[in-house]
What does this fold into?
Amino acid sequence: MDIYNLSSINLSLKNSRSLMKKIHYFEEIDSTNTHLKNNLSNYRTGDIILAESQTMGRGRNNRKWYSKKSQGLYFSILLKNTMDLHELNFLSLLAATSINRVLQKMGFTCKIKWPNDIYINDKKICGILIENIMDSNINNTIIGIGINVNTDSFDDQLKDRASSLYLESNRQKFNSYKILYRILKSLEEDILTYMTNMDTSDFIDYIKSNSMNLGRTISLNLSGELITGILLDILPDGSIKILDKNNHSLVINYGEIINH
Ligand code: BT5
It folds into this structure.
């Protein structure tokens, strides 16, 4: 595809008749994830909500996602009856893989931080928020993705920890729609491959070789409990294995790495 605007992307998605169906564009929205959650019956599987800005963009545990108007990509993909609950941990890593691949092809040296972030030069560029809602026997999975594309500045709280493609490339401006299209296609291919084989080994290999913390000492916040240890391995289901300071090995499938 040569021209990247919403109508050309939607035409291409329509013609491909694959997993990703249609982008629904909003100039301003509370949160693309919340909008899908509140309007599940209005959307089909494969529909994508894209917003120019979010007034209440969310991370995990209701943390705020800084969504500067027209400078980032803020979108959510709805999948109906596609993923099982036990696959959701892996889905976050799978989405990180698909996005990381696209950014690498653009020339960025980017790393996956378990379980849902992408970093460039030790700064967060992208966050992923997976949510699942059972509604009238339909299993609705929402993949929310926030990427700092042309973000030119961050507020004081974030400026040492967050960055954008623009800031990491000597202030080069990017066509967000082109990146969006590539990510949708990359994610589509990865989800379909995974659903065909139900085999995570190639993905896990990629995640391990592009991991930010594998082999390093990490501190993990498990709902308030702090654990420090060496990140030994990323397991086939997407959980991690840690060797704690008492030499106990632990398998963990949720939580947040608070150092890197
Ligand atoms: C995430 O949560 O990283 C998931 C973020 C998902 C955002 C997308 S945007 C489209 C869709 N609609 C939504 O409402 N959400 C999704 P978590 O791992 O909890 O990280 C949140 C933390 O990242 C915050 O507490 C900040 O420290 C940091 N943060 C906030 N905004 C950021 C930004 N724009 N860039 C980098 N870091 C940010």
Q: What stands out?
A: The first helix runs from residue 6 to 16. The two ends are 38 Å apart (CA to CA).
